């Protein structure tokens, strides 16, 4: 957090027309999304970066909603095989 605060203070200064998106990888690993969340004062929108061929592995949606910030797809991927495409559609319409 110290590095993050230094970055936004030094790079942006008093900028007010910036939205910060918190978007961890769907499968966060051992720390969970809350281990990386900078706090409500530092995130305006929440999303998920999802890179998987298996729709069943799309995890984290409920955790993002629990942060009580506006959700949005941040960086999903799609392939011509349609597996990811259907996963993205499911994530964005539920």
Chain-wise SSE layout:
Elements: H1 2-12, E1 21-22, E2 45-46, H2 61-66, H3 83-93
Parallel strand pairs: 1-2
What is the multimeric organization of the chains shown?
A: single chain
Q: What's the β-strand tally?
A: 2
Distance between the termini: 32 Å
Q: How many DSSP helices? A: 3
Order of helices and strands: HEEHH
Task: List the strand order in the largest sheet.
Answer: 1-2
Structural classification: mainly alpha
What Rg, in angstroms, do the CA atoms define? 15 Å
**What kind of sheet is the major sheet?**
2 strands, parallel
Total separate domains: 1
Task: Write a concise synopsis of the structure shown.
The protein has 94 residues and is mainly α.
Could you explain the architecture of this structure?
The protein is elongated, with a radius of gyration of 15 Å. It has one domain (about 15-94). It starts with a helix and ends with a helix. The longest helix has 11 residues, at about 1-10. With about 90 residues, it is mostly helical. About 30% of the residues lie in helices and about 5% in strands. The chain has a two-stranded parallel sheet with strand order 1-2.
């Amino acid at each position: 957090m110290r590095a993050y605060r230094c970055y936004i203070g030094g790079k942006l200064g008093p900028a007010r027309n910036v939205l910060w998106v918190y978007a961890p990888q769907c499968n966060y690993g051992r720390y969970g999304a809350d281990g990386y969340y900078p706090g409500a004062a530092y995130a305006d929108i929440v999303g998920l970066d999802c890179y998987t061929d298996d729709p069943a592995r799309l995890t984290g949606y409920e955790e993002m909603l629990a942060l009580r910030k506006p959700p949005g797809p941040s960086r999903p991927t799609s392939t011509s095989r349609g597996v990811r495409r259907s996963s993205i559609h499911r994530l964005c319409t539920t």
